[in-house]
Specification:
The structure is a single chain. This protein is α+β, with helices and mostly antiparallel strands. It is globular and about 75 Å long. The protein starts with a helix and ends in an 8-residue tail after the last helix. It has an eight-stranded mixed β-sheet with strand order 1-5-6-17-16-15-12-7, with helices on both faces. Strands 8-9-11-10 form a four-stranded antiparallel β-sheet. A three-stranded antiparallel β-sheet has the order 2-4-3, with no helix packed on it. It is built from 13 helices and 17 strands. It has two domains: 1-128 and 298-403, Bira Bifunctional Protein, Domain 2 (BirA Bifunctional Protein, domain 2); 149-275, GAD-like domain (Gyrase A, domain 2, 2-Layer Sandwich), CATH 3.30.1360. Helix 4 (133-140) packs across helix 9.
């Protein structure tokens, strides 16, 4: 399947859309603003290559150089923590276009997938659904929602007495949010062991409280009354349209943490239900664009949500210096059945704006002088996208390792050869390497 899909993608891009297949280098220099890189020593003392995380900078430079429609099936390398959907080396379809906007990229990808979609699978419909990052988080608690699952998060903050909750839930303050997730007629599956597992998951979300209720025998009313006061409990019951036999999960805490907790439990409880032969997920393939991501996030310091080359949304430019966390970026992700299969953005094509963003992120612009110099010559507006993990999902495989030849383990090891391995003292001398035994 992988060979057939990639062949059709090449065919579509070259024959139908006049793209040029250009191979870019794998050995590059270490640059800031992305994932952890693999470092490659050289025989020149103190000089190192890095393996490219993606062709990001090369393809932008190609746009500056006049290649207005580029693609390649690119090999990428990232020294990241182990996950079932990641490998230290992987292949992605990489695309970049000049004089294009977000809708143009989305339209291209939708037509590309329609053209290359395997005939043995159910056909997909275009245009794909579209949702903002804010709406995705508010309704599903994740920016990668699986729309095959019918349950949505409900915001109860406006009908909750937070001063009462502060006392009953022993909250640090009353600046909290209250969210609910209802599973109609599923209370019998919310067993003690499942509740214990969910409580353990809740421990990963700092200062977030989880309440798990089974709508049975009116005992739940007393629990809600105790938490919220009688009048509020009745309002919540009516607002959520609670029925006998329902299961309800309540998360109380900081907005993002409460939403992410329920987003996690939405998938976990669905898996529990389906393990009990309940059919919850629909059979249709659900493809969804997520847009309007925050340009920045803050974790000890300001960081790019994706990478520092993403163009800010024009409507938000006034906030760039005064309130950067309010600024949204022209980034877009494509989600298939709850997994990201593509991500891209419209790029910054103005050298002064790029310098400003790098300065805000405390990134040494000398590390990216080649990019900044190229932008000063006059870069066209351009954007792109990269597609990966698609074949894994098309094959309904549990791990990306099941659809590639010679995969690495979760620890990043090659079980066939034993790599990574030690090297001889002669090679260490040649490459000026000194190792420290722990």
């Amino acid at each position: 399947m992988r060979s057939s899909v990639i062949m059709k993608m090449r065919e579509f891009l070259i024959n139908e859309c006049n793209f040029v297949d250009i191979e870019t280098p794998t050995l590059f220099k270490s640059t800031p603003g992305g994932a952890q890189e693999f470092i490659v020593p050289t025989r020149q003392p103190g000089n190192f290559y890095s393996l490219v995380q993606s062709p990001q900078q090369f393809k932008q430079l190609l746009m500056v150089g006049g290649f207005d429609r580029y693609f390649q099936v690119a090999r990428c390398y990232r020294d990241e923590s182990a996950r079932h959907d990641r490998q230290p080396e992987f292949t992605q379809l990489d695309i970049e276009m000049s004089f294009v906007d977000r809708d143009g990229i989305m339209n291209l990808i939708e037509n590309l997938l329609m053209y290359s979609w395997p005939e043995e699978l159910s056909p997909i419909k275009v245009p794909f659904k579209l949702m903002t990052y804010e709406d995705a988080m508010e309704l599903y608690g994740t920016d990668q929602p699986d729309l095959r699952i019918p349950y949505q998060i409900q915001n109860l903050t406006h009908i909750s007495d937070l001063s009462v909750l502060k006392r009953t839930m022993k909250l640090e303050d009353d600046k909290q949010n209250v969210y609910a997730l209802i599973f109609p007629n599923k209370s019998k599956y919310l067993t003690k062991s499942i509740r214990n597992e969910f409580s353990k998951i809740c421990n990963d979300y700092v200062n977030t409280k989880l309440v798990q209720l089974k709508i049975e025998n009116n005992l739940w009313r007393a629990q809600l009354d105790e938490l919220f006061s009688k009048n509020v409990a009745e309002d919540i019951s009516q607002y959520c349209k609670l029925q006998e036999g329902d299961a309800i999960l309540l998360a109380i805490g900081r907005q993002i943490d409460a939403l992410k907790l329920l987003g996690k439990l939405r998938v976990e409880f669905t898996n529990v239900l389906e393990a009990k032969a309940e059919q919850i997920r629909s059979y249709e393939t659900e493809l969804l664009w997520i847009t309007d991501f925050p340009l920045f996030t803050f974790e000890k310091e300001l960081q790019s949500t994706h990478h520092p080359f993403t163009q800010p949304l024009s409507d938000d430019m006034e906030h760039l210096t005064t309130n950067p966390l309010q600024v949204r970026g022209l980034h877009y992700d494509l989600i298939m059945n709850g997994s990201e299969i593509a991500g891209g953005s419209i790029r910054i094509h103005d050298a002064n704006l790029q310098k400003q963003i790098l300065k805000m992120l405390n990134i040494d612009e000398s590390k990216l002088s080649h990019m900044l110099e190229a932008l000063t010559y006059g870069a066209p507006p351009h954007g792109g996208i990269a597609i990966d993990r698609l074949v894994c999902l098309l094959c309904n495989a549990k791990s990306i390792r099941n659809v590639i030849a010679f995969p690495k383990t979760l620890e990043g090891r090659d079980p066939m050869s034993g790599a990574p391995d030690t090297i001889s003292d002669e090679l260490k001398t040649l490459y000026h390497i000194q190792t420290i035994d722990k």
